[in-house]
Design goal:
mainly alpha; 5% strand; two-stranded antiparallel ribbon; 329 residues
Amino acid sequence: MIAACLACPTTSFQVPIGGMLLKERATTSIATPSSLCCSRLQRASSNIASTLSMVAASESETSTEEKEKAMKATDYFKPLVDGDILESTDEQRTIVGVAYVLLGALATKGVLLLPPASPLTALGVATSIVIGYEFADMGSGVYHWAMDNYGTKDTPVFGTQIEAFQGHHELPWTITYRQFSNNIYKICQATSPFCLAGLLLVDNPYLLLWMTTAIAFINMSQELHKWSHQGPAQSTAWVNTLQELNLIITRKSHLAHHRPPFDGNYCIVSGHMNPILDQIGFFRTLENIVFRTTGNRARCWTNERLLADKVEAIGIKRKTATDRDAASD
């Protein structure tokens, strides 16, 4: 190498580094051969060290990015309910799959039992579907109201769902990271027996189509709910279009529910029943009946927050309706 340095005034060093080729080109400006070679060798060594450092840093960044991509949504957006996850499991996918097989069979039975095509038949089918759809909206509202206002995590059967609804009030954005089967499997478990009952006991085609529509959209209510929390950029074009046409629950409509004390706008399928039920005081009537019968006050009366301690432990403070009223006084 020293001989090469002395041979010509311009010298190139080529060194392989981790699959990369480092090429250092130097121009001779010192007459002394020994100092010339030392200078070039020092510069080459310095560049080699610098390149190795850059490669190591790049590999470290790539490794971090790959790890972040591999991490589950649960690791980023931890639900408040202990043991809850956001990813679908094989068991959940199986539950949802069985539910939709039963639902398909129910719809098929209803279609096969329909009378010959006629305007009256078409009217009956359309009426069954529309009523089924709006029934699902109202049903989702009643269920949502009950989970929001009564019981605790220790309530038999519904405890985990009650706690999950309370967690959703505190950290509403986590629902947008739930995978499909994870989001709806609990509802599918509850509706599948009704599908079986329809298959075994019901022979009226219009009633079967009503059941099919109602169960289908009750099953999907949590997914429609999830879409109402997603921004337009997170949602597909057809979901945005359905919301813009007011055919499914909209972001603006559902946002009205997420204000303490969470006492209205419970319906999460179409949202069409919300103004009707809220204006006639439907849920206040139910709450008064429950109070007179059992002595239990609805959470929207007391403003109780079951998971307040967990939320504040992670640094999130939320003002309640009572807090705001006190501040205004």
